[in-house]
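$ ./design --mode recover --in tokens.txt
reading tokens...
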């Protein structure tokens, strides 16, 4: 049976929406009539993956999504119901009925339909990749295979809530730098398009030689005025071309390796990915997943493709008998503190406990680094903005000073 979204009228002429299961649209329409409703439309419940195949997406994800708060809530609800011993089909039905949002109800009923067809929960969630990202699906799959789905879902809810809070903090901290960037662009654009051309008219009739900085500013201003539309079009074309090129695995792999070597962004990428790896590995190993399987899944949820390849190599070495610490050390990019803590856990036989501490330590380091980066951005942007305005002002004032000297 499949899930269908419907819109119908009740006996009072009021429009109602919902989700019903049936073998066909015709059967669902008959169900609505049996309930005394007049069906207006019956459509298959939203599909996430299939929508991506309707045409080129130019690197943009397509399909329904769920915000972090709703995802954490429904994950917590599923964990509670699974822990209570309900079958997964009933769990998904209850979660769908509990939600007040039609989009989520439709999505969860579509997932339930896939589960009833015999698919695993993780595979059913993969129909909606934007709503349930790779980390989420991989962790659910690990819970299904280990038999600890309730514990994994609880940990996943904690992780989702933590990620939401972290994202909100970063977004809040980036408001002021973003305002400075937009304000700087607006000021410089206004000066180049409105102020500089008016000043040029004053200087053009004097016949005097203009300073080099003023000549360069006038040329730049003319370019802005005549070709601003071409600049916007070029920027858009470059972004779209970059997205399409990065869809090629070989180019994406080289780009991700290059990112890791960049001064600030490289360290940020390393911290984010090693923190995510440590958190996922901790969740999986403490849920009873074998270390090699846990490493394979944790590697898949890293966003940097080059680090993924290094972790795959490390996973192969662990499967051949190498220690986790040595395998990750040979992979590179993992911080020494993390490696020493893992080595301590392996020698003491408490690797699960130590991995949990490693995850906490990595998350704290990530928060501290993000705080430092965010704190130094505003002063840097202020200096850059002041420098640009200073150059423009000097280019305008120098000819005026020369004219005054000639008159004197």
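writing sequence...
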């Amino acid at each position: 049976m499949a899930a269908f979204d419907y819109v119908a009228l009740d006996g009072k002429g009021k429009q109602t929406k919902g989700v019903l299961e049936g073998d066909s649209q015709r059967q669902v329409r008959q169900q609505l009539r049996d309930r005394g409703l007049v069906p207006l439309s019956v459509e298959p419940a939203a599909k996430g993956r299939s929508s991506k195949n309707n045409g080129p997406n130019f690197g943009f994800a397509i399909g329904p999504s769920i915000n972090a708060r709703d995802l954490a809530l429904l994950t917590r609800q599923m964990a509670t119901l699974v822990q209570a011993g309900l079958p997964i089909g009933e769990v998904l039905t209850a979660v769908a009925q509990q939600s007040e949002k039609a989009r989520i109800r439709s999505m969860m009923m579509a997932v339930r339909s896939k589960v009833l067809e015999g698919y695993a929960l993780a595979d059913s969630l993969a129909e909606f990749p934007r709503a349930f990202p790779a980390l989420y699906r991989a962790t659910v799959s690990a819970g299904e295979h280990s038999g600890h789905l309730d514990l994994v879902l609880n940990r996943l809810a904690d992780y989702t809530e933590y990620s939401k809070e972290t994202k909100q903090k970063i977004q809040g901290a980036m408001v002021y730098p973003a305002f400075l960037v937009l304000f700087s662009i607006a000021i410089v654009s206004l000066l180049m398009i409105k102020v500089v051309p008016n000043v040029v008219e004053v200087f053009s009739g004097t016949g005097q030689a203009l300073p080099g900085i003023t000549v360069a500013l006038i040329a730049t201003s003319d370019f802005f005025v005549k070709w601003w539309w071409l600049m916007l079009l070029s920027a858009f074309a470059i972004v779209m071309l970059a997205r399409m090129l990065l869809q090629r695995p070989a180019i994406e792999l080289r780009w991700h390796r290059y990112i890791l070597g960049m001064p600030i962004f490289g360290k940020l990428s390393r911290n984010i990915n090693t923190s995510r790896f440590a958190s996922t590995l901790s969740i999986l190993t403490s849920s009873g997943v074998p270390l090699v399987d846990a490493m394979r899944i944790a590697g898949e949820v890293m966003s940097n493709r080059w680090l993924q390849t290094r972790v795959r190599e490390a996973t192969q070495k662990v499967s051949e008998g190498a220690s986790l610490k040595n395998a990750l050390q040979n992979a590179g990019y993992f911080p020494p503190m993390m490696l020493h803590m893992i080595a301590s856990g392996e020698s003491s036989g408490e690797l699960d406990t130590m991995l949990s501490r490693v995850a906490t330590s990595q998350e704290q380091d990530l928060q501290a680094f993000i705080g430092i980066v965010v704190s130094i951005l505003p002063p840097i942007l202020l200096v850059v903005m002041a420098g640009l305005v200073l150059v423009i002002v000097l280019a305008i004032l120098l000819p005026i000073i020369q004219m005054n000297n000639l008159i004197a």
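exit 0
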